[in-house]
Description:
The complex is a heterodimer of chains A (115) and B (112).
Chain A: E1 4-7, E2 10-13, E3 19-25, E4 30-38, E5 45-51, E6 57-58, E7 67-73, E8 76-81, E9 90-98, E10 103-106, E11 110-114
Parallel strand pairs in A: 2-11
Antiparallel strand pairs in A: 1-3, 3-8, 4-5, 4-9, 5-6, 7-8, 9-10, 9-11
Chain B: E1 4-7, E2 10-14, E3 19-25, E4 31-37, E5 44-49, E6 55-58, E7 61-65, E8 71-76, E9 85-92, E10 100-102, E11 106-111
Amino acid sequence: GAVVSQHPSWVICKSGTSVKIECRSLDFQATTMFWYRQFPKQSLMLMATSNEGSKATYEQGVEKDKFLINHASLTLSTLTVTSAHPEDSSFYICSADDFVSEKLFFGSGTQLSVL
Amino acid sequence: GQQLNQSPQSMFIQEGEDVSMNCTSSSIFNTWLWYKQEPGEGPVLLIALYKAGELTSNGRLTAQFGITRKDSFLNISASIPSDVGIYFCAGQLRNAGNMLTFGGGTRLMVKP
């Protein structure tokens, strides 16, 4: 079945540094990818919708300058957490929309810990 | 925005028991999806429902798309320890770019 690779699985960084998370669709093309954030024991909250070749659409309350999203190709979207702070520590998950099967597939998530 | 109410929030059951959880929405969806998430992993799709009234099974799992298109339930029969995890419902609207709206999740714990 379709696979979405998300990397890294976990990252620990110092406050003030930037962290890049990659989301790749391995065997299908994804014109649309979604980025979610999940706090412990809570549901997934959509952060932004990433469309290939255009600017991402951010949900209300999500700072676009802090969470930079790039979707430069049909198989890759990246989320960069800029100037990370401890409150950015969370589990980040991407999903990719396979327009052929019309199904969404999820990455395995990235646990970010900012010290 | 749309809200999905998922209940119960958590369940602690004995192995072999049947489990039922449901989601309700204030507005309609085209598609209802049920996912399972294990610690440190992304959600994995269990069942997808595309038509109002649809009843679909996947092994010991059965889910239904409510006739009003505003609700769905998931049943797990004869639970086993590996059913432990968090189950999420999600609603999807085709004219919203396939964006998912998630329920709050049901944490299932199974006692052997």
